[in-house]
Amino acid sequence: MSTALESLSRAAAAWGEPVGPAALEKISAYLAFVREKNEDVNLTADAGWDDLVLKHASDGIFAASILRTLLPKAPRILDLGSGAGFIGIVLKLVWPEAEVTLMESVERKYRFLNAAATRTGLKGLRVLNRRAGSGAALTAYERDQDCVIERALAELPEAVRLAWPLLGPKGLFAAFQSDEPDPAEPALAKSLAGTGATVLKSCPYRRPGEARDRRLVLFARRED
């Protein structure tokens, strides 16, 4: 096992989301596939092995550790703007009971996600070539999610607006953020008011080897 994977395993255990050897092997195989295809598909600028493991896979595992405490045992989760699938695929690999949809509008990334999803061999991992907010009618695969999650999709006010129509009545929106968001900031306040969303909780964490906190911020429907 590489040093990076060992660090990831220790971090996962500290977050309350221990990852066994079989899951680590699957994560490693998926990340190796990203590296193999990256030059042709241009999936990420962070193609070094340590970055893939400690920067990208760690976020998916941390998300699973938080969402397990708040969602049903077998939730419907949509990864909005999946890119290379770092969040949705890793989350699915460590939480097989979850039904995960990867939603990506860029055709070349969509094709990669299809290939990556097929290689996992996991049931309940779906890929959609769709753009949120395009005005197209929502399909059954998009709406009524228990959770919509995003990382680097858009500025937070816009991300809230795009994610909200995809949630079920008790659904949560989870957004990765570098800093603590201010709900009173005008653009975010407008987006929260327009959607009826409110910040449920902000969960700080550190990726292995980093010296500052990041956050996974969770939004729920405001109770009037």
Q: How is the secondary structure organized here?
A:
Layout: H1 3-14, H2 21-41, H3 49-67, E1 76-80, H4 86-94, E2 99-103, H5 107-120, E3 125-128, E4 145-150, H6 156-163, E5 167-177, H7 186-195, E6 197-205, E7 214-221
Parallel strand pairs: 1-2, 1-4, 2-3, 4-5
Antiparallel strand pairs: 5-7, 6-7
Report on the architecture of this protein:
With 224 residues, the protein is an alpha/beta fold. It has helices at residues 3-14, 21-41, 49-67, 86-94, 107-120, 156-163, 186-195, and strands spanning 76-80, 99-103, 125-128, 145-150, 167-177, 197-205, 214-221. It has one domain (62-221): Vaccinia Virus protein VP39 (Rossmann fold, 3-Layer(aba) Sandwich), CATH 3.40.50. Helix content is 42%, strand content 21%. The protein has a seven-stranded mixed β-sheet, with helices on both faces. Helix 1 (3-14) packs parallel to helix 3 (49-67).
Question: Which key features would you list for this structure?
Answer:
224 residues; alpha/beta; Rossmann fold; 7-stranded mixed beta sheet; 7 strands; 21% strand; globular
